[in-house]
Design a protein that fits this description.
Chain lengths: 262, 159, 268
């Protein structure tokens, strides 16, 4: 085989990736540009908030509760040999608010809402609904994509907060009500050590970033999917995989930026 | 699903989210004690700040009255200069002293202010005259080892 | 009423990529108030013509003219303004599956007009009545049959009374009754509103029954055009093969292959 062929292929793949990246950036810019409609016609966004947000509350709350329960158990087991069981509240709160809340919420969101967005847009494209809308002189980016994007960006921070709050309450149930730790210590140590801006604030900033990223990815992959049943199926898988990876990488970057300097 | 119903449910969702954020901010974090009062700076010089960190609390009589805003090294007298932001509501006598204390046995370090009895109060930017450095664990152990080593010589008959 | 054709396609060449040219220097004219059929076998570029007129795709060379103005796909305002005067009925309806029948037909009215709710309701019911589906207004799209879906889509297409109505394969896969209903609807709508109807189809008999004029496309070229009687009487072998539905002719039956004897290993 011609030794240059692998090099050629590498070059082509790189160019393809660059082109895809450029295409995706344009799509993102379009989304932002058309967001005005999502605000002006907020009714459309409300419908999407219901589909994306409300329908995710149950899984987010359930996951938050179980994660809180487990954190409390594991935390107690780890801390009590050192006599530091009273710090359980701090441990759980910081773990949830800084990391687990934003990241797990984003991953669950990508799986539940992200795939449904991708499938919906993909199927609309396959059924020529988007072309029909264009032929009726209505821009699908304004009417269909922008409201979903805005709804996602609003939903994820709210869901993240719910996850963390429910987790902390669940930890309270385990730590104080079941194990019998002192509630005063539980809450007061937490209040002393968890900082509003640094911990809660940064956590919310993370959820914003994750929300923007995963909603954009879901919409883009759906929009670019092949207009066949297999194409849509592959697209939903792709959404989960890409969203999850991007969220994890973003988390690393944001954590390094936010929490490395004391 | 009626329009009314959808909007009500969405409103509930947003409300839940806001409540969660509020809960986290107030109950879990320190927003309640996040004073929006203005502060004034006070300085203190220490031989050794130990593990004191920026944002560490400044307490008097066990109550938080401010926090550490910066820790710097003074090259001229080789001491650490700590700047504290104290709540405007509290003024301390000129002969107050500052100690670096540890919360619990192995906890974080903070600054404890003991009020003096002087009539004159410290103004913004002034330095606290008396400052006791942090107790560094290694020095403590070193002192203990040395005193143990000196003991047999001090009590010759004991065995 | 002006005698200028409402839509004009001039010397248009189009291909999705450089290797496959779908339309090769074609020119067509669509006079006002007439029903014109564009016919040809599958893949001859008929649907592409509709997409070109609607500005969904852009030709490599040539122009599309609508009401005397040349279509410029880079000027989205112009394209959108023109589209408000057109209607395109997609082959399978392309209805919005998350809305009801009523909401689908009301969609263009709600998006482009500020008519009060009562008027919108009246107009929607009238359009549905024209296609015979007024009673189906509250149904969800998943609850209606394919034929009904196409009729709902037609009601939606004419909601704003467009000057040009385009039909993409309106007869494909319909039973005889629906065929008759559809043909009837197209003709009556055209005459009642004075619109121009462009039908893309390969159903010769149905089209010839009611259209005023027809174009025949083979391999991306306009082979012939004229009123149905003229085309039926044509001596051109390509035209005859299509009109008569002959299996073999200028469009070969066999896909190019070596002689069968060779492939089966049998002596000639």
């Amino acid at each position: 085989m011609n030794p240059l062929v692998p090099v050629q292929r590498l070059g082509t793949s790189t160019l393809d990736i660059l082109q895809e990246l450029g295409h995706a950036s344009r799509f993102f810019a379009d989304l932002i540009a058309h967001s005005g409609t999502a605000f002006r016609r907020f009714g459309l966004t409300v419908v999407q908030l219901h589909a994306i947000g409300n329908r995710s509350i149950l899984i987010i709350a359930a996951s938050g509760a179980t994660v809180g329960l487990v954190l409390a158990l594991q935390g107690y087991i780890t801390l009590s040999p050192y006599g530091q069981a009273d710090s359980l509240g701090v441990l759980v709160a910081l773990a949830l608010v800084r990391e687990l809340g934003p990241v797990l919420t984003a991953l669950l969101y990508a799986g539940r809402a992200g795939t449904s967005l991708t499938a919906e847009i993909g199927l609309m494209k396959a059924g020529e609904q988007l072309s029909a809308m264009e032929m009726m002189a209505v821009d699908p980016r304004s009417r269909v994509l922008a409201p979903r994007f805005l709804a996602g960006v609003i939903s994820v921070p709210l869901l993240g907060a719910i996850f963390s709050a429910v987790g902390i309450l669940a930890a309270y149930v385990v730590g104080v009500l079941m194990i019998g730790l002192d509630p005063g210590q539980f809450w007061s140590q937490m209040e002393a050590r968890v900082d509003v801006l640094r911990d809660v604030g940064n956590g919310i900033v993370k959820t914003f970033a994750f929300g923007i990223a995963s909603t954009f990815i879901a919409l883009y992959i759906g929009y670019e999917s092949e207009a066949t049943p297999e194409g849509v199926a592959r697209a939903t898988t792709k959404t989960v995989v890409v969203s999850s990876l991007v969220v994890l990488v973003l988390d690393f970057i944001l954590t390094a930026l936010m929490f490395s300097a004391p | 699903m009626g329009r009314r119903q959808t909007e009500t449910l969405v409103g509930t969702f947003v409300l839940l989210g806001m409540l969660a954020i509020l809960f986290l901010a107030l109950k879990a974090a320190n927003l309640a004690s996040f004073s929006f009062e203005s502060h004034y700076p006070l300085l203190a010089r220490f031989d050794n700040v130990g593990g004191l960190k920026v944002h560490a609390p400044v307490k008097s009589a066990g109550v938080t009255v401010g926090k550490v805003s910066s820790i710097a090294f003074d090259g001229s007298d080789y001491r650490a200069v700590v700047t504290m932001q104290i709540d405007d509501r509290f003024r301390f006598p000129a002969d107050s002293d500052a100690k670096i204390l540890t919360a619990g046995l192995l906890g974080d370090q903070y600054i404890g202010l003991d009020a003096g009895s002087d009539d004159r109060k410290l103004n913004a930017g002034e330095t606290i005259a008396m400052a006791q450095s942090a107790i560094v664990l290694e020095n403590l152990i070193g002192a203990l080892v040395n005193s143990k080593a000196a003991e047999p010589a001090a009590r010759p008959g004991a065995k | 009423m002006s005698t200028e054709p409402l839509v004009r396609i001039r010397n248009v060449t189009f291909g999705y990529d450089a290797s496959r040219v779908i339309l090769n220097d074609v020119s067509l004219e669509f006079p006002r108030g007439k029903v014109i059929a564009i016919m040809g076998s599958s893949g001859s570029g008929k649907t592409t013509l509709l997409r070109l007129i609607g500005g969904l795709v852009r030709a490599q060379s040539g122009q599309i003219e609508f009401a005397g103005e040349t279509l410029d796909t880079t000027d989205s305002e112009q394209v959108y303004a023109m589209r408000r005067r057109m209607g395109l009925l997609f082959q399978f309806g392309a209805l919005f599956t998350d809305l009801t029948v009523f909401d689908n037909v009301a969609f263009p009215l709600r998006e482009h007009t500020r008519l009060p709710k009562g008027m919108v309701r009246d107009i929607v019911l009238m359009k549905l009545n024209a296609v015979g589906l007024r009673g189906a207004a509250p149904l969800r799209i998943s609850a209606i049959s394919g034929g009904m879906a196409r009729r709902v889509a037609l009601a939606r297409t004419i909601a704003l009374d467009p000057e040009v109505i385009m039909y993409d394969e309106p007869f494909a896969g319909l039973d005889p009754i629906s065929l008759g209903v559809t043909a009837n609807l197209i003709r009556r709508l055209n005459d009642a509103t004075g619109a121009t109807s462009i039908i893309v189809s390969h159903d010769v008999e149905e089209c010839f029954a009611f259209c005023d004029y027809a174009y025949l496309l083979v391999n991306g070229r306009v082979v012939t055009h004229g009123p149905p009687e003229e085309l039926r009487a044509s001596e051109d072998p390509e035209v005859r093969q299509f009109i008569r539905g002959e299996a073999d002719g200028p469009v070969r039956f066999h896909y190019p292959a070596p002689p069968i004897g060779e492939q089966l290993g049998v002596g000639a």
